[in-house]
Amino acid sequence: MTFSENLCLVAANLWGTEYKDLMGRNRFHQNVVPRQAVMHALRELKAWSFPQIARIWRMDHTTVIHGVKKSQAMALSNEDYALKFHYLLQEGERLNDQTFQTLQTQAMQNVDRLSVRLYTQEVCALAGFGPAKLRRRIAEGKFPPPVERGNQLLFDRDEVLRALNIGTPQVQETAQW
Fold first, then answer.
1. Residue 51's CB: how many other CB atoms inside 10 A?
2. Domains with residue ranges and CATH for the chain
3. What is the tally of helices (H) and strands (E) in the chain?
4. What is the largest CA-CA distance in the chain?
5. How far is residue 15's CA from residue 78's CA, in Å, rounded to a whole number?
6. What's the per-residue H, E or C state across 125-156?
7. How far apart are CA 4 and CA 62, in angstroms?
8. Looking at 31-40, 99-108, 110-119, which range is the least confident one?
9. What is the pLDDT at residue 4?
10. 152 — phi, psi (to 5°)?
11. How far apart are CA 107 and CA 121, in angstroms?
12. Does the first or last residue of the chain, that is N or C, have fewer Cβ atoms within 10 Å of its Cβ?
C-alpha cells in the first residue's frame, strides 16, 4: 500500500468510516471530513502539490484547495477535530519515518557514491525521516540550511553527513610518552 492509502486507513479508523467510502467520490459529511483531513495531512507531511493530492481521488485540484482550507479552519475551531487531526499527523510521520528508514538502509550502503549536492529526498533517505521533520529540524537550527536553486532545495553533502554523524573521520588519539 502507498503512503496515502495507509494514511486514509488511519483516517477511516479515526473518524469511524469505511475505507472504500473515504476513497469514493460521495459527498456525505461523514466521509468528506476525514477525506479533507487526509488532504491537509498530505500537504503538511509530504508537501505535495494540490494536483498531486487531487489525483488520489480523481478530482479537480480546486476541490483539494477547498478541502485543505476547510480542514485548517476546523482544526482551529473544533477541539475534537484538532485532536484527531493531530493524531493523524503523528501516525503519518510514523508511517513516513518507516518508509524513510527503509530508504536510509539503502542510502547508507551507497554513501560513498553521493554527489556534492543532495536533493531533499536523498537527505531524508540518509536521515531516516520525512520532509516535515527535516523542515522542523532546519527551523530549529539542528540541521544545515539548504541552498535554493529554482524550485529545488540542495544540501551540501559534507554538512549533511556531519549533522547526521555519518562518515565523519574518526580522530585517533596518540599516546604521549
1. 11
2. 3-93 (1.10.1750.10), 110-163 (1.10.1660)
3. 9, 3
4. 80
5. 14
6. HHHCCCHHHHHHHHHCCCCCCCEEECCEEEEE
7. 19
8. 99-108
9. 86
10. -100, 145
11. 11
12. C
Q: Strand order in 152-156's β-sheet? A: 117-119, 152-156, 147-149
| Structure-derived torsion over alpha carbons of residues 93, 97, 99, 100, reported in degrees to the nearest 10 | 130
Q: Read off the pTM.
A: 0.60
Question: Do the beta carbons of residue 36 and residue 67 sit within 8 Å?
Answer: yes
Instruction: Give tens-digit pLDDT for 34-74.
Output: 999 999 999 998 888 999 999 989 999 999 999 999 999 99
Of 7, 5, 1, nearest in space to 132 by CA:
7
The set of cell numbers assigned to 70 is 476547510
The CA distance from 164 to 118, in Å, is 14
